[in-house]
Design brief:
The protein is α/β, with parallel strands linked by helices. The protein has 20 helices and 16 strands. Helices cover 37% and strands 16% of the residues. Helix 10 links the parallel strand 9 and strand 10. The chain is globular, with a radius of gyration of 23 Å.
């Protein structure tokens, strides 16, 4: 049995971390009783002690069990997620501070060693942790590319100053133009609150004291008095990430072909890359949404699920829908289960949509258990991302439930089906409207999406693929000997 240490910046039972956390939670659950892989979980970057800033690793007592012991690195010098790190990259790039590297080395020894470390990102850790390979040459290091953090400290390769995907960072100049996420004092309070065991103390009693302590933590972690990063810093960030990954990582798992192509273009060694679509517990379900409705059906239901954010293509979608012909929009039901929609969209704009379309249904996000209700009568799902979204979990879930998905060609969502009817040019309103109009007027093509759909990866199949990736190869065996 292979003993595997899984790393993510937040605990897999957390509500943070988006689709990666959901995926890891499903993976850990699916590994229960598995005879090939024995998992241990480690997180870092989102929990800080109000009593001491010294980094250390502790067990997560509330979640340690025989199936998967869980640990967290408290007081990491590198805060997570990566969008916080962009305020000051020094702690991440610093090669002179080996505190975390040494903690990881001791942890591995105390745990009796590992066969594999599987990093699902490096957020929350300094880059030099990859040097752990120098201490344990026989340790196999796997790195999954769920996002673009190795190339972009903002994670998404998305230029938020002009709301488009990043095509060229011009030696770091474009990185300096990106708007950095504001420092929210509440994050530091929350990071310290998480240090306490759940239910051990009422957080509201601590807030005045934690607010005082959080100012010191913010200055220590992010050097908020420091100057903005120089273009050379961003250039070095990308160069060192690529160099360290190419040197120390044994295999890189890209979650879609598009991710693999982009990584190769940035300088990741092609011989290290392998496309590995993530497993999902939805892959084996019986679809409950109809593959298609008769052409003479009175209305056509279009659904957007996820976040009401620019990068997710939500505002692109609103603009495109507002340009549809009146006779077409009058026959369309819109269903938006979009988190933060009421904060992001003025009521007047929503009201105009309600007047033009047959029906408009809105909810502030959704829970996975609500998918049957949300998708039962949906004709078409839309994933109109305007960034290279690696492989949106929502696209997998909709496809698994029997809903065809019209996706932009940015990222991996459009790879779920090879039918050209369901792939439009990203951030191209005219092309989106052309594809939507064709599907609306020729609803029989909805069935083609499913006929030409790439089989979704079940969690069982995914675990078998991981076990094959984890298997010691000639390079690892020779280093062990």
């Amino acid at each position: 049995m292979l003993k595997v240490l899984y790393y993510n910046w937040t605990d897999c039972q957390s509500s943070r971390g988006g689709g990666v956390t959901v995926y890891l939670r499903n993976l850990i659950n699916a590994l229960r009783g598995n005879r090939k892989i024995c998992p241990v979980f480690l997180s870092a970057g989102d929990v800080y002690s109000p009593f001491s800033f010294k980094p250390y690793i502790r067990p997560l007592k509330s979640r340690v069990n025989s199936d998967c012991p869980a640990f967290e690195l408290v007081n990491s010098p590198v805060p997570a997620p990566g969008t916080l790190l962009v305020h000051n990259l020094h702690n991440y790039l610093d090669q002179s501070d080996c505190t975390v590297l040494e903690l990881l080395r001791k942890f591995i020894i105390e745990q009796g060693g590992f066969d594999v470390i599987h990093f699902h990102n490096l957020e929350g850790l300094p880059l030099n942790v990859l040097k752990i390979k120098e201490y344990f040459p026989g340790l196999k290091i796997i790195f999954s590319l769920h996002n673009y953090f190795p190339f972009c400290p903002q994670v998404q390769l998305f230029q938020n100053h002009n709301q488009c995907r990043c095509k060229s960072f011009r030696g770091g100049l474009e990185c300096g133009r990106c708007r950095r996420k504001p420092l929210d004092p509440q994050w530091f309070i929350e990071a310290m609150t998480l240090w306490f065991e759940p239910g051990s103390i009422r957080p509201q009693l601590l807030k005045p004291w934690l607010k005082f302590k959080s100012a010191h933590l913010a200055e220590k972690l992010l050097s908020i008095k420091a100057q903005r990063n120089l273009p050379q810093t961003y250039k070095e960030f990308r160069r060192l990430n690529i160099a360290f990954i190419n040197r120390y990582v044994d295999k890189i798992l890209a979650v879609s072909q598009r991710v693999a192509d982009l990584a190769t273009g940035y300088g990741i060694r092609p011989d290290l890359l392998e496309v590995a679509y993530i497993g999902t517990d939805y892959a084996g379900i019986k679809p409950f949404a109809p593959a298609f409705k008769p052409e003479d059906s009175s209305c056509f239901t279009l659904a957007f699920l996820g976040y009401a954010r620019a990068a997710k293509g939500f505002f692109f979608l609103l603009s495109a829908l507002e340009q549809l012909p009146d006779e077409m929009s009058a026959q369309i039901n819109l269903r938006f289960a979009a988190r933060y929609i009421y904060d992001a969209v003025p009521p007047q704009r929503l009201q105009k949509l309600r007047q033009r379309f047959h029906r408009l249904e809105i909810s502030d996000g959704y829970r996975r258990g609500e998918l049957p209700k949300l998708l039962t009568d949906v004709d078409l799902g839309v994933v109109p991302v305007i960034w290279e979204d690696n492989l949106p979990q929502v696209a997998i879930e909709m496809a698994a439930c029997g809903v065809a998905v019209l996706a932009s060609d940015f990222g991996g969502a459009s790879e779920l089906s090879s039918s050209p009817y369901f792939r439009f040019r990203g951030n191209d309103t005219a092309d989106f409207i052309a594809h939507l109009s064709y599907i609306f007027n020729h609803r029989d093509v909805l069935a083609e999406y499913h006929r030409m759909r790439r089989p979704l990866t079940t969690m069982s199949r995914h675990i078998s693929q991981l076990a094959e990736s984890y298997r010691p190869d000639v390079r690892t065996l020779s280093q062990t000997g």
